[in-house]
């Protein structure tokens, strides 16, 4: 048993909303957090102290509940992936994992990858032969024939067919199940505003997954597909865009109330791809989005978690913080955004006893940033040290984009 290591900073955010310790420390013993508190109360068995300085903040490792490691975040990630063989895809995924870790993300859920490669990447990270966040994986999303992301290999339909798809995913190493409740923007010919599955198929998927204790995430853009997902009892609603046939979003008050009532988590996947998406449908942000929708959701009692759809068109994994800044731009306070990216996200993934907070007994998922992210989320761009399940990592990649009012034209700043 090696000696513990203590990390000290002027500020420690424990992950309990609004809780901030001054002149405080985190004691890490192997892969576990042994103690958190003010330096004045430091226990005798604390080992060497690494002082990160008075202007540093120590906080829980961040969580992205919705990524795609196999998409490289270039202008044409699907084309790149389809042209690649599995070895090339695996290489892309390993880089994506290190980009996330560089952004301070110590837990990520991959919501769709081809050929069981997500399981292989997860195994490599767990074995210590690759660096990356703790991964939860789903294999290929379950979709209808020719439906959204069919090219990932997850086509299934009829009640019997979708039940078999769930059992197959479990056999092949999936942690959770992803279903495509509507069409999507990345798959030409599918219809984002319309439901893909019948309510009976949706119910069969959720029942089969829950039978095995697997959570279900539903991709749902349009309102009918959101309703189907809520009624089937999925665990999280991804995108939740209320997309109409013309591409604009029209949030539905009744559906928002249903969501608050059901307690299902919502991940709006606000991300660096927003500008690209607007060019696809040739509309401005004002025409498409309700500016204060995140505020409205929180005020209604909906649990909103952070997830960025990292990897899709022009949304590299390293740009995680862009998504958090976007959540703030849609009306959340910095404390609410931090909660959605740590403890609440962990809860949504069933990991509340594992990560998302700094507390004795949890896994040592810890990041150190310069500045105070409670005052300015941009501080999260200056990640100095990442500790993922006790293993230290120095960021290799830097985010470059900053949120601005003209979301249709993301600004690029030098790395
Ligand atoms: Zn996605």
From TrEMBL:
<dbReference type="GO" id="GO:0016810">
    <property type="term" value="F:hydrolase activity, acting on carbon-nitrogen (but not peptide) bonds"/>
</dbReference>
<dbReference type="InterPro" id="IPR057744">
    <property type="entry name" value="OTAase-like"/>
</dbReference>
<dbReference type="InterPro" id="IPR054418">
    <property type="entry name" value="MQNX/HUTI_composite_N"/>
</dbReference>
<dbReference type="InterPro" id="IPR032466">
    <property type="entry name" value="Metal_Hydrolase"/>
</dbReference>
<dbReference type="GO" id="GO:0046872">
    <property type="term" value="F:metal ion binding"/>
</dbReference>
<protein>
    <submittedName>
        <fullName>Amidohydrolase family protein</fullName>
    </submittedName>
</protein>
<keyword id="KW-0479">Metal-binding</keyword>
<dbReference type="InterPro" id="IPR051781">
    <property type="entry name" value="Metallo-dep_Hydrolase"/>
</dbReference>
<dbReference type="Pfam" id="PF22039">
    <property type="entry name" value="HUTI_composite_bact"/>
</dbReference>
<feature type="domain" description="Amidohydrolase-related">
    <location>
        <begin position="57"/>
        <end position="390"/>
    </location>
</feature>
<dbReference type="Pfam" id="PF01979">
    <property type="entry name" value="Amidohydro_1"/>
</dbReference>
<dbReference type="InterPro" id="IPR006680">
    <property type="entry name" value="Amidohydro-rel"/>
</dbReference>
<keyword id="KW-0862">Zinc</keyword>
<keyword id="KW-0378">Hydrolase</keyword>
<dbReference type="InterPro" id="IPR011059">
    <property type="entry name" value="Metal-dep_hydrolase_composite"/>
</dbReference>
<feature type="domain" description="Aminodeoxyfutalosine deaminase/Imidazolonepropionase-like composite">
    <location>
        <begin position="24"/>
        <end position="46"/>
    </location>
</feature>
């Amino acid at each position: 048993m090696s000696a513990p290591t203590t990390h000290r900073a002027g500020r420690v955010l424990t992950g309990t909303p609004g809780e901030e310790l001054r002149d405080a420390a985190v004691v890490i013993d192997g892969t576990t957090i042994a103690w958190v508190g003010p330096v004045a109360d430091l226990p005798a068995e604390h080992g060497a102290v690494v002082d990160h300085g008075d202007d540093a903040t120590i906080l829980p490792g961040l969580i992205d509940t919705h990524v795609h490691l196999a998409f490289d975040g270039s202008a044409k990630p699907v084309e790149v992936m389809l042209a690649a063989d599995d070895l090339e895809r695996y290489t892309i995924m390993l880089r994506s994992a290190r980009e996330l870790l560089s952004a301070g993300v110590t837990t990520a859920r991959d919501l769709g990858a081809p050929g069981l490669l997500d399981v292989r990447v997860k195994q490599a990270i767990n074995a210590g032969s690759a660096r990356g966040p703790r991964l939860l994986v789903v294999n290929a999303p379950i979709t209808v024939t020719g439906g959204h992301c069919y090219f990932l290999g997850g086509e299934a339909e009829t009640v019997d067919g979708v039940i078999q798809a769930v059992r197959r995913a479990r056999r092949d190493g999936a942690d959770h199940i992803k279903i495509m409740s509507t069409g999507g923007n990345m798959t030409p010919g599918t219809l984002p505003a319309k439901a893909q599955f019948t309510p009976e198929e949706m119910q069969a998927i959720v029942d089969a997954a829950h039978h095995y204790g697997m959570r279900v995430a539903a991709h749902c853009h349009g309102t009918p597909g959101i309703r189907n997902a809520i009624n089937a009892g999925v665990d999280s609603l991804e995108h939740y865009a209320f997309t109409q046939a013309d591409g604009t979003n029209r949030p539905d008050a009744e559906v928002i109330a249903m969501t608050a009532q059901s307690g299902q988590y919502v991940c709006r996947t606000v991300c660096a791809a927003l500008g690209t998406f607007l060019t696809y449908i040739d509309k401005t942000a004002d025409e498409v989005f309700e500016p204060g929708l995140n505020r409205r959701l929180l005020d209604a009692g909906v649990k909103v978690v952070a997830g960025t759809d990292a990897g899709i068109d022009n949304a590299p994994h390293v740009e995680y913080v862009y998504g958090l800044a976007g959540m703030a731009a849609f009306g959340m306070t910095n404390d609410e955004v931090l909660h959605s990216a740590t403890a609440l996200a962990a809860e949504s993934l069933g990991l509340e006893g594992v990560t998302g907070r700094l507390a004795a007994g949890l896994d040592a998922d810890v990041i150190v940033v310069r500045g105070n992210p409670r005052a300015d989320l941009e501080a999260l761009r200056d990640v100095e040290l990442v500790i993922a399940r006790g293993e230290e990592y120095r960021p290799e990649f830097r985010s470059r984009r900053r949120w601005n009012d003209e979301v249709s034209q993301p600004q690029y700043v030098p790395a």
